[in-house]
Design goal:
It is a single chain. By secondary structure, the chain is of the alpha+beta class. It is built from 4 helices and 10 strands, in the order E-E-E-E-H-E-H-E-H-E-E-H-E-E.
Length: about 160
């Protein structure tokens, strides 16, 4: 997945048709490609002040990655998380929180080690994974805790307020 940060939006290249799309950090539903209409990976970097809007108010389950740039295991797990965000596009939002820049997030969730992954729905932690793990282990952990297990993405609201599959 190719992305470029631009304010509170990212430019995401669709993994299906290679169209560039603007994806906001906060929106109702899940982002879809403007060309092929397939779900786009939703990856957001956030800090403490934006956490509530980006995570707690999300209509999708959110995988929060609490990491630090100096942490080797954090850098190792990051590509696996982005791969999973692409595979689970339309069902999951990946939010990366730098623990050094957002210590209030670490305090809120009593983070003792990094990387720590929190799967959240409606502002509540539904599952927690501490430490790095390979993509297949993280995939199994996520799908066990996501609504619908390994099923297709649920219908989500598009930017016009209609449901799309």
């Amino acid at each position: 997945m190719s992305t470029q940060q631009k304010g509170s939006t990212r430019i995401v290249v669709c993994p299906h048709c290679s169209t560039k799309n603007r994806v906001p950090a906060v929106a109702a539903g899940a982002p879809r490609c403007g060309n092929c209409h397939r779900p786009l990976p939703w990856v957001v970097d956030t800090s403490g002040p934006d956490f509530t809007a980006v995570v707690d108010e999300s209509t999708l389950p959110v995988l929060v990655d609490v990491w630090a740039p100096w942490c080797g295991p954090c850098r190792m797990v990051s590509p696996a998380l982005e791969q999973l965000a692409t595979e689970l596009a339309g069902r999951l939002k990946l939010v990366k929180v730098n623990a050094d820049e957002a210590p209030e997030v670490s305090r809120r969730f009593d983070i003792q080690a990094i990387p720590t992954l929190l799967l959240m729905r409606g502002g509540q932690v539904v599952a927690k994974q501490v430490g790095a793990a390979p993509a297949h282990v993280l995939r199994t952990w996520l799908t066990q805790h996501l609504p619908g297990g390994g099923a297709e993405p649920a219908a989500t609201s598009d930017s016009n307020g209609g449901d799309r599959r």
